[in-house]
Amino acid sequence: MMATQLVMEQRKRIHPSKFLLWVAIGSIVMMFAGLTSAYIVKRSQPNWTSFEMPLLFWYSTAAIMVSSVTMQLAERAFKQRERQKYKMLLLLTLVLGLLFVVLQWMGFKAIWQSGVTFSGAGAGQFLYIIAGLHAVHVIGGVIALVIMSVKAISTVKRNYNMVPVEVMATYWHFVDLLWLYLFVFFMLLT
Amino acid sequence: MSHEASLHREVVTTHEVHHDEHHGHHHQETFITKYVFSQDHKMIAKQFLITGIIWAIIGGLFSVLFRLQLGYPDQSFPILEDILGSKWAAGGKIQPEFYYALVTMHGTVLVFFVLTAGLSGTFANLLIPLQVGARDMASPLMNMLSYWFFFIASIVMIASLFVQTGPASGGWTAYPPLSALGDASEGSKTGMDLWLVAMALFVVSQLLAGLNYISTILNLRTKGMAMTRLPLTIWALFFTAVLGVLSFPVLFSGFILLLFDRHAGTSFYLSDIFLASTQKALPNEGGSAILYQHLFWFLGHPEVYIILLPAMGMVSEILTTNARKPIFGYMAMVGSMFAIAILAFLVWAHHMFVTGMNPFLGSVFVLLTLLIAVPSAIKVFNWLTTLWRGNLRFTPGMLFAIGFVSFFISGGLTGIFVGNSTIDIHLHDTMFVIAHFHIVMGVASFFGMFAGVYHWFPKMYGRYMNNTLAYIHFWITLIGAYLIFWPMHYEGLAGMPRRYLDVSGWVSFNQFSGLNRFISIVSIIVFAVQLLFVFNFFYSIFKGRRVRTQNPWGSNTLEWTTPINPGHGNWEGEIPEVHRWAYDYGKDGRDFIPQTEPVGKNESSH
Question: Does any domain span residue B553?
Fold first, then answer.
C-alpha cells in the first residue's frame, strides 16, 4: 500500500498536458495495433497480393528521422534560451514534416501506378489506409508546428514555458517511431 | 537537473494559480457560457444526462414498437400507419425493413448513446472532480468538446432516422457483408453511412472524455487523496476510461476499413459473394467478414464493462453510505475491478464461438470468460457483506443499488451458460442471449444509473426528487424487468431465435404466443413508468423539495463538502485536504467521519 502511494506521489509530478499526451499516444497505438493485426489476419486469406516498396519511402523515412533529430535539437535550443537557433530548427522540422507527407503521397502514387489499386485484395489496400492515417497524424503535428513557429516568430509575447515544446517533441518522436514500425512491418510482412 | 526541477515546480504553481483565477471569475458567465458552451464539469454532466434521457426515451420507444410486433404478429394497429406512414407501417403492421431498423437502432442507442455517454458521461463528469477534490477536469475545453462531439453524433444519428431508405438495419453490431453492401438492404444505404459517421464522432467524443478522466484522476487529486483513499466510484470510472481509451480506437479502425469497403471498392471484409438483389457476383475477392467481428468485439466486449463498471462503482458508494457501514473489502473491490478490466480485453472471441473458430482457440476463450466469474463473485460477496447487519436506509438510490446487485447476480449466472462454447452452439442467437445481456448489462446498468441519479440529484440541482414517485418507479421497474426478461430464458432454451420478425410460422414456438403477448404488455407498462421517472426528474429540477443541509445523506466523500449549489470551481475557499479513506461509517461510536477530518490520536486505523 505504501509503495503504490509513493509511486502515485511521483506520478503527480508529470505535467497534466504531458500525461494527457501519453494517454493519447496509448490510444493511437491501439488504433494502429488494430489495423496491423487486421493485416496479419487478412494475410492468411486467399488471393493475397503484395506490392513493391518504392524507393520514395526510403527517402521519406530519412526525412522524418532527420526531422526527429532537428526537433530534439530545437527543444534543446529552447531550454538553453537560444531563440534564434530554436526558430531555425523548428522551421526546419516543419519543412521536413511537410516533405515527408509529400514523399508519402508520391510513394502512394507510384504504387498505385504499378497496378496496386483498391480492386482485388492485398497489402496495398492496407498500406494506403494505414500509412494514410499515419500521414494524417503527421499533418496534425505539422499544424501544431506551424502554430508554434508563429508564436516563436512573433515578438508580441515572449514565452519561456517549456511544456508545449516538450509535448510537441514527444509527439513528433512518436509519429517518427510509429512510421519506422509501420515501414519495417510492411517490409517484413508483404 | 536542479534547474529543470525548479522550472518544473514553477509550471505546476502557475497551473494552480490558473485554477484559482478561474474560480474567481465564475460570476461573469452569460447564458451561453453557463448553460450551452459550458466548461464547468457539473453542467457538462447535466448536458450528458439530459441528452441521455432523451435518447433513452427514443430507444425505449423503439423497443415498445418492436415488442408490439413480437407480441401481436397477426394483428394490425392502424394508428401506427397514421404516425409512421405507409412505408414503415403499411396497413398498421410493422414492415420487416422497419422492424430491423428498430432493433438495430434500439441496440445502438441504448448501448452507446444512453449507457455509455449518458451513464459514464454524466457521472464521470459530475463525480471525478468533486470526489478527487479538483476545481474542474484536467482540460475543461476538451471536456466541453467531448460533449459537443457527442451532440453532433446524436444529430447525425437522429437524422439517419429520417432518410428515405431508413436508418441502419443490419443489427447494432453492423456486421458486413450486410453493412458493407448498399444493395443488400434498404438500411444498408444512406442510413448505414450516417450510422458510421455518427459512431465515428461518438468515438472521438469518448476518447476526448476518457483522456480527460484519466489525467484528472491521476494528476489533480487534492492533498492527501492517495489512490488508496479514492472512493470506489472513482476507481470504477478510472478503469472505465482506460477501457474506453484502449478499445474505442480499434473499433474506429474497423469502421474505417468498412467505409473503404463500402465506397472505394476495397476487399477487407467483402469477397466474391453472389447478391440476390442485383443477380450478380461482387467483384471483390478475398475479404473476410470475420475480420470485422474481431475488430468489433475487441471493443464490443470491453464496452460491456464500460457500461457496467460505473454502475458498480456508484452502487458500492451508495450501498455503503446507506448501510452506514464501511465497504467490505475495499482493496478486493479495486483488485476485482482491475481483474475485470484486464480480462475484458481477453474474452472478445466468446461472441464468435459459432463463426467457425478453431475449437481449441474457443476453449481458451471459454476459460478466460469463466475466469470473470471470480472477480464478479468477489464483488457480489462484498456488496452483500456490506449490507449484512447494516442500518439500512431505504432511500430510492439505495433501493436501486440493491436492485442492481439482484440483476447482476441473475444475469451473471446465465453468463456461465453462454460463456461455454458447447452450450453456446445451442443458445447463440436465441432469446436466451437477449435475456442474459439485457439483465446483466442493460437493466443492471440502468439500475446503477437510476441509483446515481436519485442519490446525486441533490448535488446536481440542490433539490430532492419526489420519493413516492421514486418508489413506484422502483418497484414496477424491478418486477417488470424480471417479468420481461426471465421468460425469455425459457424461449431461448427452446430455441426461439432472436431478431426474427415473426416466429408464428414455427409450430414449436406457438406455445409461446401467450408469453410473448405478456412480455409485450409488461414492456409497455415498464416504459410508461420510466416516463414517470422523467416527469419526476424534470419536475424536481424546478419544484423539488429544497436541500437545506450541505450533506443530506451523511456521506464521507468530498462532494458533500461543497456548497449546496456549487459554482464553477466547486469550493469557495481552499480545496479541502483529505486525511482518511471514504468509508469511515459507524466507526468508534460515530455515525460517519468525513474524509476531510484528520485522524484522531486515539482513533483505531481501518
Answer: yes
Asked if the Cβ–Cβ distance from A27 to B248 is below 8 Å, we say: yes
Range of the domain at A162: 53-188
Inter-chain contact B291–A42, Cβ cutoff 8 Å? Answer: yes
**Spatial contact of B371 and B400, defined as CB atoms under 8 Å apart:** no
Q: List B residues 497-536 in contact with A (Cβ-Cβ < 8 A).
A: none
We report the CATH number of the domain holding residue B312 as 1.20.210.10
B246 interaction partners in chain A (CB closer than 8 Å): 26-27, 30
Interface predicted TM-score (ipTM) of this complex, two decimals:
0.89
Alpha-carbon distance of A2 to B511, in angstroms, equals 62
- Number of cross-chain residue pairs from A and B with Cβ atoms under 8 Å apart: 129
Residue A15 lies inside a defined structural domain of this protein: no
Please state the rounded mean pLDDT for residues B576-602: 91
**Does B391 fall in a domain?**
yes
Say how many C-beta atoms besides its own lie within 10 A of residue A133's C-beta: 18
Alpha-carbon gap: B219 to the closest alpha carbon of chain A (Å): 5
Print the domain residue range for B444: 38-271+282-592
Cis check: omega of the bond before B563, within 30 degrees of 0: no
Closest residue, chain A, to B13 (C-alpha): A15
The beta strands (E) that lie in B231-359 are given as 274-275, 280-281
Q: Give per-residue burial for B12-50: e unless 16+ CB within 10 Å, then b.
A: eeebeeebeebbeeeeebeeebeeeebbbbbbbbbbbbe
Of all residues in chain B, what percent carry a pLDDT higher than 70? Answer: 95
What letter would DSSP give residue B34? I
- Examine the pLDDT at B196 and tell me if it is beyond 80: yes
Q: Which of B131-140, B442-451, B560-569 has the highest mean pLDDT?
A: B442-451
Closest CA to B241 of B203, B201, B199, B212: B212
Q: How many structural domains are present in chain A?
A: 1
Residues of chain A with Cβ-Cβ distance to B227 below 8 Å are 4-5, 8
CB atoms within 10 A of CB B176: 26
The CA distance from B315 to the nearest CA of chain A, in Å, is 24
Average pLDDT over residues B445-473: 97
Give domain status of residue A30, yes or no: no
Contact (CB, 8 A) for B581 and B595: yes
Residue B287 near chain A (CB below 8 Å): yes
Q: What is the mean pLDDT of residues B289-311?
A: 94
Task: Tell me, yes or no, if A65 comes closer than 8 A to chain B by beta carbon.
Answer: no
Question: Which of A19, A26, A45 is nearest residue B218 as measured by Cβ atoms?
Answer: A19
pLDDT > 60? residue A107: yes
Counted domains in chain B = 1
Block residue for cell numbers 452506514: B324
Chain A CA closest to residue B252 = A31
pLDDT of B4 higher than 50: no
The Cα–Cα gap between B400 and B357 comes to 40
Q: Of B587, B518, B594, which Cα lies nearest the Cα of B560?
A: B594
Q: Tell me if chain A has a CB within 8 Å of the CB of B253.
A: yes
- Residue B370 CB partners (closer than 8 Å, separation 6+): B416, B419, B420
User: Hey, what amino acid is at B193?
Assistant: D
Give the HSE-up count for residue B343: Cα atoms under 13 Å, Cβ half-sphere. 22
B139 CB neighbours in chain A (<8 A) are 16, 20
CB contact under 8 A, B256 and A133: yes
